[in-house]
Specification:
Structural class: mainly alpha
Mean pLDDT: 88
Shape: elongated
Distance between the termini: 69 Å
Number of domains: 1
Helix content: over 70%
Low-confidence stretches: none
């Protein structure tokens, strides 16, 4: 397949896939902040079923993100292997750092969001039960 694409075309494809991965990560970050902000602002209005629904939807969205991100990173690695020596060494050395930092950001983000959502619900339900 490398014979069918020039180094420029492979670099362009890698840039496009990388941009898609960044966009996907930004969507996930937006969803995460939406869960955190709604948990903080609207916690008095959350009952068990609303909290459970938000929790399940956020978890499923995160699983979908993880699946898509894995597929895109597999595609990116494939194209980087095809490009071989035509890519600058700085690009190749920086790429793993981006992947390594996104993994803990994702895991910690999901855990904190889910814990905060349920913590907000529990705290609000205790306050409401005292009234």
């Amino acid at each position: 397949m490398n014979e069918l694409m020039s180094p420029f075309e492979l670099a362009e494809l890698i840039i496009n896939v990388t941009g898609q991965m960044d966009s996907l990560f930004n969507y996930w970050m937006s969803a995460t902040f939406a869960v955190l902000i709604s948990s903080y602002i609207a916690k008095e209005h959350f009952n068990y079923s609303i909290t459970l629904s938000i929790s399940v939807l956020y978890f499923l969205a995160s699983v979908m993100f993880l699946s898509r991100y894995y597929a895109m990173s597999t595609l990116l690695l494939h194209y980087m292997e095809l490009a071989g020596d035509s890519l600058p060494s700085q690009f190749i050395s920086a790429s793993p750092v981006i992947g390594i930092t996104r993994a803990p950001t994702f895991v910690i983000g999901v855990i904190i969001s889910e814990v905060y959502l349920w913590h907000s619900y529990m705290k609000s339900s205790r306050v409401n039960s005292k009234d």
